[in-house]
Structure formats: structure tokens, C-alpha cells
Amino acid sequence: xTPDPILRARGLTKxxxxxxxxxxxxxxxxxxxxxxxxxxxxxxxxxxVNLITGHLRPTAGTVEIDGRNLTGxxxxxxxxxxxxxxFQIVKPFRAMTVEENVMVAAFFGGGRPxxxxxxxxxxxILERVGLGGxxxxxxxELSVADARRLELAKALALKPRVLLLDEVLAxxxxxxxxxxxxxxxxxxxxxLALLMVExxxxxxxxxxxEVLVLHHGVVLRSGPPxxxxxDDRVVEAYLGARYAARAAARKRPEGES
Amino acid sequence: MTTTAxxxxxxxxxxxxxxxxxxxxxxxxxxxxxxxxxxxLQTQLYTGQERTVxxxxxxxxxxxxxxxxxxxxxxxxxxxxxxxxLGGYTTAVLMVHLRWSFWLALxxxxxxxxxxxxxxxxxxxxxxxxxxxxxxxxVAEGLREVVINTxxxxxxxxxxxxxxxxxxxxxxxxxxxxYLLFLGLAVAVVATGLLVARTRSGxxxxxxxxxxxxxxxxxxxxxxxxxxxxxxxAVLTGxxxxxxxxxxxxxxxxxxFDVEITVLMVVMVILGxxxxxxxxVIGAVVVAYxxxxxxxxxxxxxxxxxxxxxxxxxxxxPQGFVNYLREATRQRQFSLLENVRRYRL
Amino acid sequence: MSQFxxxxxxxxxxxxxxxxxxxxxxxxxxxMNVVNLAHGAFVITGAYVAWEINRAVGLDxxxxxxxxxxxxxxxxxxxQRGLVNLVVNAPIFITLLLTFGLNLLLxxxxxxxxxxxxxxxxxxxxxQSLVLPGDVRVPYGRLIAAVIAVALTLALAWAVRRTxxxxxxxxxGMDRGAARLMGIRAAHVxxxxxxxxxxxxxxxxxxxxxxxxxxxxxxxRFTLFSFVAAVLGGLGNMYGALYGGLLLGxxxxxxxxxxxxxxVNAVAFAVVVIVLAVRPQGLAGRAFYASRVEV
Lengths: 257, 345, 295
Description:
Chain A has 257 residues and is of the alpha/beta class. Chain A contains 10 helices and 10 strands.
């Protein structure tokens, strides 16, 4: 018995001039479940995230959070409603320390904590994502993996109920992906509703409860990971028609992940 | 529920509460000391020196006020003198036509300037970078021309004179009086800066400066924060303009809306260190004294030399003195030539 | 009716000249994200150079445009390569302050040398007019100036798209890192761009000197006009600078006719702010210049 969705998007559409970046996309985000979003480049994955978080106004469609219509609301109102996100190209505050970066979110995520409370919260979250001890560094001094951790820490400091991850794993070494997936799984267990945009298909397969495939701005397929990833159309969208035909001809045996 | 690592760590732990309290109160202590020093200094100065220091204090206030919108929030307002002049002229109009006391006119004028800033800030703050800079410049120029063209109210190009002697409602404050007034205003503005820097609002403004989209995504109401900083900066600048107007008694639009005042403000903040509290103060003191010195000793070429100094200083110290000092001590590297490499192609 | 025609023609002629002033400013802003507050000073410097040449060898100012252009190009190249390049990556205050300081230097240098008096470059034909039906007068000087100005503006616009140098300027403006990876020397390209802008401004100055009076005190006005025309036309868009200049010339002419003189500038600025609020890329500009990739 799955709980009610916190966030419902219906009929989301975004056009730029004549280009349909996103067309009629529906999705639900449920606490404790992770929705994976995959698709070839240019499919509109980041646009989708931006539409939900208010960085872009939808041309049509609605976004409801806890039943309230927050379609196209300003990003801070979405943040106050409990929705946090990471950016695909990380956007840290470069002239502030790691600690101060997270404190901004701690200050403005709702409630009006004092400096010392915000600092304490920031330290706790930095420990949790694995950046403990590096609070006084500046973002420029962090490795790629640590920069991603900082981005995640900033999002978590908002005490969100919904978390949108935009390609957090991009550029990570395989050894770095494992702990990242552990962390994400633990967030899911804590009851966050998660959406994860990714290219690393194995990662999606490992942590998603449901997968949504975007292609040219339209939902190609959605459902449980095993089904979706075995779908011929999905393979074709990612790898092209020739490979899809080969795969169909070979008909992979059941149970292979 | 994930377990967190134990609180004990080998790296820097947040200082004990007692140390933190000292750290929090020290800047206020310094400000109090500086105010006291200012008061004490007054007794030691001749009239001519007193007037110079008064001018320096005025610029300290102006620079610190500009720092709120330009330094912290990063919105390069190049029309700041518009608020200065509007404050001055509003005060003059209130005192000349309605025969108000100066002590009533000053706060009312400042609030009026703040409301004006709220009004124009709404469309203007949607602009970024250069656009914002020159749009605000345009507003300042526009204000000047409106003042020139409403001569029945403002005296237009012929200037306006505030009644200060004889049967005036408020007699002229005298050199000593104005020294104290500008000292008080400077302290007020710097105190505002301190308040902003150390609280939530300071974090919000700095976040907006560095990445407005990310700040918005983290819950900062960027529109409200920017507008409040803009209006707050305007109110303080307007108040200083009001004081200046009364001090000058007679003045003209070209003086009260002089672009050079804005540029001096910006130079002081940038060279002192934008986004810090001490930077604008240091910058103001150094540049104001420097400018006065040049004006007295090299009257024909003082603007030329000022221009050359601006060019040199901007190239050598683009991040400002205070920030340069902080980084230099952090990285133990003091070479200015290395500093030049910072922003070069 | 004839007054309408007179004012409109005057506005277009002035506008053509303003376009030449603005096109370099717009190019520099679009390519390097530098707002050159000393641009107006280049215009006046050009006027003085042409004036000196005219005084020394009696060369017609329109012909003197050529050496003027060379001198101003050199000046602009050196200033960019030696000074502005040092702060190209800095926040906008820094470049604004730098060019402001340069402006102070140039303007006050000229005031020291020439005093602030108004000068003009005399020619035998400039004040005579072509008389059109309806008693509309078109001064020859203004007509030649406008024609040359528009021709130069169009030539620059053409050259930027069609010559190798022009393309390297555009490429560097769109993505400096990528351009450098393709072997384009960014510092040199920037300096050439700045030099071209200065040369255009200088030539416009020579024209201004012929058709009206000039003085160092006018430098700020020209910078302001360049800004307005560039914004109206869209940054980096040279045809846009042409439209912007013409539009500004018309507004100035009509405004000067209908409103008290000083309000015209206020109106021009109000127009700019409104345009920017509604359409941040200018009337004819393209949005990508607003989001530039820098390396």
C-alpha cells in the first residue's frame, strides 16, 4: 500500500518558440520511493526538473505539492514547500566556505534559525554526506565527487520531503558511485520522495522503484526498471535502431541484469 | 535512521561558546571605539581640518551604504547619487516651502527616498550586470533633469537656498554640529552593515551575488531581499544627502546629482574591499583624503591624477584592499604583481 | 508638413552619425562584455585629431578620417592590449571603473591641452544646403557625414561576417575558450576589436567636428548615446546599432522639438529602461549574448 504522492505533475508541457522541449509529461513522487528518469541527451530531462522547481514556467500543465497548486511558482516558494534539487552543473557559492554554502540553505529552508543553530545543522549534514572535516574549504578546492556531495548537502539542508537529483553521478569514478548510491538509498529509506535523472543506467536499475524514459520530450515508457530497460523501444532510443534490431534478434535470456 | 559519525573529530571544531561571543561582540566594540575616537578627534581639529574630516565622514557613510547593494548583493548601482540628490532636494523643498524643521525634514526625506527606491527597484532589479548599472545611472540623470525642470519647486538650474539664519526654523548647525551629524550618520550606516553582514540577510545577499539561481533554489526570496537592500541603501544615502544639503545651504542640481560622487563611492568600496564591513570605511578614508589632498595641491590636474590613480589601483587591487589582505595572509603571498594575474586574459 | 520633413531628415542624418559612434561600442560590449565608458572620449579625440590635421596641412576633414582612423585604432589597440586585457575576467565593476578612469584621463588630458572651448573644423561646403521641395534644407556636410557613417557601419557589419578576422572576432565573442582551442589568439583579437571600435568612434568624431561643434565636455553625451543605441539594437548586433542609432537620432530630433531640451535625455533613458525590462536582448538582439561561456 503506497502512501499518497507528495508531488503530482500532470500534462507538463514546455515549448520554446516552435520547439517542444517537454510534452504532456505526468509523474508522481511518493515518499520512500525513487523515480528514475532516463533518456538520451536532449530528451528534456533537465528541463523537466526546472519546470518542477520553478526555474522555468510551464507552457501548460500543473504541478501540485501536497495538493497545493504551485505550478510555475518562484523557486523559493517551491523550496519552502519542501522540494529541493541539485543542479547538473554544480552551482556552489564560490566565495563562501563549504560550511557557509550549506548554512544558506539551513537559514532559508523554512523556520528562522540563529547563526549558531544553522551552523550546527550544516555541520551535521556535511558529516552525513561525507564532507565532515572539510567545512572551511572553498568549493574551488574540492574534488568533483566532493563538489557533488556539497551540492547534495545544500539540498538536504532544506529539510526537504522531495529531492530532485539532476545527474549527480556524472563524472564520478566507479569507486565513487557505490557510496553515492548507498547515500541515496538511505535517503529513500528515510522517507524522502526522490527523483533521479541519470545516464548511468546500471545505477538507475539498482535504486529505482520506477523508471520513466523521456525521448524528444515525451514519455516513451514508464514502469518497473526491469521491464522498462528491456523494452526494445528504450534500447533503440538510447543506442539507435541498428543495435535495437540486433538485440531483438538475439533476445537476451531472462534474469540478466 | 543513519548514524552520524561521533562529534569528536581531529579537525577544527567550532570554538567554545565564550570565544564565539567575543568574536561576535568585537566588531561592535571596535565601532564604539571608533565613534568615541571620532568624538575625541573633534576637539583637536582646526576649522579647516574639521571640514575635511566632515567630508571624509560623509563619504564613509555613502560608501558603506552603497556597499549594501553593490558590495554585498553585487548589483552595481551607478545611479546612487540620485538618492543622494533626491534626499537633499526633498529636504530643501520641505524646509523652504513648508518651513519644516530640519530634524523633521531629514527622516521624512530619507523615507521618501526609500519609497522611491522601492518603486523604481521593482523593474530595475530585474536587470543584471551592466544593464542594471546604466539603467540606474539613467534614473539618476532623469532625476536631475526633473529637478531642473520643476524650477517653481526646486529652483531649477538657479539653485535653491535653505533658510538657515535669522528667523529660520532650524538654525545652521555650524561646523561642529555638522561634524557630529555626519559622524552619527556614518556610525549608523556602518552599524547597519555590521548587522547585515553577520545575520541571515548577509548570507542571503552574498548568495544572491554569487549565484542568484542557486540562492533561489535554496529558499532565498531573491526579489524581496534585493529590493530591501536597494531601498535600505537608498534611505541611508538619502539621509546623508539631506544632511549635505543643509550643510551647503545653497546648492545646484549639478552638484547634488554629480556622477562623480557615485564614482567616488564605487571606487572607495571596490578599492577598500566590496562586501566587507571595514573595506568601504578604509577605502573612503584613503580616497577622500587623497582626493582632497590632490584638490588642494594640484588643482589644475587633480582630476587627471585621480583618473590615473583609479586605473592603477583597479589593476593592482581588483578585489580591494581588505580582501587582498585576507587572502595574502591566508596564502602567505603578498606580491601585487601576482595579483595582477588574477583577472587577466 | 515641411517642418515634419525637416525635423525627420535632420534626425535621420544625426542618427546615421550616432550609428557609427554606437557600432563600435556595441561590438566591444558584445564580444568582450566590456562597457567602455571612455568611448565618447574616443569620439572627441578623433575630432581633435582631424582638427589638428586640418590645421596643419589643410586636409579636408572627411579625407582626414583615414589618418584619424589609423591613429585611433592604434590608441585603442594599445589601451586594450596593455590595460583592459588585465581585467577582462574581473567582475563588471572593475572594467567599468577602469574605463571610467581612462575616460577621466582622456577627457581631462584634452581639457588641459585644448581648454574646454568649443571648436569646429571649417570647410567651404559644409554649411551650404541642398534645398528640397517644401523648403527643406539638407546641409551638405551632414549629408556626406551621414552617408559615410552608414556606409562604414554596413561595411563593418559585412566584414565581421565575411572576413577571417571578423569571424575570429565573432567566435572569440561567443566562446573564448573554444576559439582559443582553434588557434585564435584571443588577446590580439580583443585588441583588434577595441581598436576597430576606437577607429569608428574617431571617424565619427571627425564627422561631428565638421558638421557641428565639439569639446571635451561632450564626451559623456556620446558615451550615453552609444549605450542607448547599442541596447536598443541588441548587443554585438551591428545592424542593430544602425537601427538604434537612427531611432535615437529621430527621438532626439523630435524630442528636442517638442520637449524642453534637458528632458530629452530623461525620455531616452526611460525608453531604454522600458525596453530592457520587456525585452532584455534589445529590440533586434539575440538572447545568446546574455549567456556567454567564458574561459
